[in-house]
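For anyone still unconvinced, we reproduce a single protein record, the chain in one-letter code, the fold tokenised, and leave readers to judge:
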Amino acid sequence: MYQQVAFDVSKIRKDFPALHQEVNGKSLVYLDNAATSQKPQAVIDSILKYYTTINSNVHRGVHSLSRQATEAFEEARKHFQRFINAEHAREVIITKGATDSINLVAHSFGSAYLKEGSEVIISALEHHANIVPWQVICEQKGARLRVIPLTENSEIDLEVFASMLNEKTAIVAIGHISNALGVINPVKEIIRLSHNNNVPVMIDGAQGIVHENVDVQDLDCDFYCFSSHKFYGPMGVGILYGKEKFLEKMPPYQTGGEMIESVTFDKTTYNELPFKFETGTPNVADVIGFDAAISYIENIGMEEIMAYENELLAHGISTLKNIDGVRILADGAPKAGVISFLIDDIHPFDAGTIIDKLGIAVRTGHHCAQPVMDLLKIPGSVRASLAFYNTTEEIDRLHEAIKIVKQMFG
């Protein structure tokens, strides 16, 4: 077990090898963390160790390497359970990422619970990954997809949401934190209102788990999902938490391999939870890498990370607002980790290209959230997304880069 250390950003940055390089002749400033985070050396080392020592397929193997790999894999699952405070390890499904998790819930829950005339509620803030799977299953089932509108400040309109809940509502699927705007959604109140109407709730936590403590039993959500690669772990791994009472009744999303209990040409029976939803050979090395990432985060402390990131965010917003012509989207809404902005009438792609030439990585475009950009009547935005290894000095470099963009465009 790691011993928690005091927060020291200069020391922390030494743990992330990718941060110490030059881009376009400038020292790298990495502000694209909402797309993917950089990885600490401890994560990289854990993956290398797996492949050079216990590389083997998990479960069912009787030889030593397989037993060791299986133990490491299942210990990681128990660690994920503890980290989000799930009641049981069997409620923790290993997936390929948040998108895979949402597809699993949409198609498996949808298969079991949606019928013609059912309604699924999402919000106007959603990432495409929490829109399209629900569109597909609603079309297949003859169900209706309903969208919670936003207030003038780009927050979910809770009053309208409450009025949308009815006996036809099968499930509510909401993002914890908007990847495009950084708005923190009132998920606990959404869950309470939904449960008052006997409606289950799935939370897309791809951004939420990164910036907030998540206790799924305290939230009382029915499903919660997130990705490793946004949370300082490797790509290709995600977690789906689901309450056992729903997972037991949901049919398998995919078939083959681990999800099988027995197979004959007449009938196949399915494995118990969580394996019923885990097909084929899992990404063992990267699950172990994700386990190491969470240990690394716990070593620093989520409370310390949250406090530091909030300071960074406040500094970033106040700094960028001082530049004439900069418009920060959803300014004033409760936010975490994201500053999404426009510079005068300069297209975000053009601004982002110049900013990159100055060694600063930001994301431009609609951020896989086209509907909210359409609502705001903008082509997209420049997005600076923060992590606990960023510094106020890096934000100040972004400030200077924006001024250069403005000068170049007159």
About this structure: The two ends are 56 Å apart (CA to CA). The domain at 45-298 is CATH 3.40.640.10 (Aspartate Aminotransferase; domain 2). Residues 15 and 139 are 47 Å apart (CA to CA). Residues 1-5 have pLDDT under 50 and may be disordered.
